[in-house]
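Feature request, filed as a ticket because there's no other form

It would be nice if the structure record came with a short human-readable summary line next to the tokens. Right now we just get the raw output. Example of a typical job, pasted below so the devs can see what we mean:
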Amino acid sequence: MQNKILIANRGEIAVRIIRACKELNIPTVAVYSTADKDSLHVMLADEAVCIGSEKSKDSYLNINRILSAAISTGCNAIHPGYGFLSENATFIEMVEQIQMRFIGPSSKVVSAMGDKANARELAKKLNIPVPEGSEGEIFSTTEGLKVAKKIGYPVMIKASSGGGGRGISIVSSDEEFVQVYERLALEAEVSFGNRALYIEKFIESPRHVEVQIIGDTKGNVVHLYERDCSLQRRNQKMIEEAPSTILNDILRRKLLNAAVKIGKHLNYVGAGTVEFLVDKKGNFYFIEMNTRIQVEHGITEAITNIDLVREQIRVAYGHELSFKQRDVKINGHSIECRINAEDPIRGFLPSPGRINNIIFPGGMGIRLDTHIYTGYKVPPYYDSMLGKLIVHAKTRKEAIRKMRVALEQFMIDGIKTNIEYQYLITHNPEFIKGQYDTGFIERFHLTVEEGLKNLE
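Raw output as currently delivered:
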């Protein structure tokens, strides 16, 4: 059978995968909802199949329709991108059962690491530090309260099957715990199909550092260094950079070795990210593993000059990685700003609508991964991300300057975006010094709101 890949996703990641497939001379099939009939990924793919209405459950989360589209178009592989079904073990198992390639790890591995409590226990068995917390999953308020009292407040209550920054709450008292627990369990059941939760000690003002790994079917698992994802709003990443500004050589080596150790234990095949928190004293803790390509993979590609999506596809088809660990070097510094259709002034309210005009930034060391164009209508049904603006330079200082110039030249008319907000962040002293943590955006936003009040 000729290789042909169905892309079970939308937006910029679908466009990114299509481009990698074209370079590999592999035909592609796009799937789309009625709301995405004019999306760029539909235009760029060799074939396109409408799989349902604008509701995700009727289209991008509808397993039967996606598999039917893959079979009817003669595909022999499915690339899930990120989000949607990318970490759904049931979907992956069904792909395996019809003897189609899933471009990612096996359903067994995804199931093991998708259960965050289970992943935490695995890390402990491998002698990788984890935050103090519950032994396995919690299924009742009473059980959870016992754990919270034992480890001491504040604690984080997390959905065992959560991901993407969702299904997380921080509580500081018994009363708050009782109020939050049942609501979070219900949210977890609705969002992830599993109401099980687990509890971890809340680490105050940490840095969020993740390690990119990739493995093949020949037993090779390598790292591609780390990314710093500490600039977050409500656990949703906003700006990422690589490498991290807080790791010395010893701490970096520990994180990289821990990530590869997990990958090798799992016989991991495909791209994956092992995530850690680093506290003020330089202690690090494993928090979870994402068994898929990450939104921010582009900054790793920039500093290593390795095409991760291309490698993902190659190893899924049984090829050995095209490089060895010794070949992976850090070259310069890269920063990514996630450009969203949202209004930062009004609590980051989503801003769907028609884009009347666009001016894209360009120049040496500037990359934009996006699916938008002049006249494109941003639908209100999905994630608000319009694209990822990525810069690469010899030093972090040069990368910050390059990002400022790129943001200045990036104009989207017709909807609200966070471009100006990102521009302000790149001028903040904490960010410039690299001395920020996961609470930075909250502090920064209060300053911006106060400034706006003064202007009024």
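Something like this underneath would help us a lot:
The mean pLDDT is 94.
Residues 174-192 form the longest helix (19 residues).
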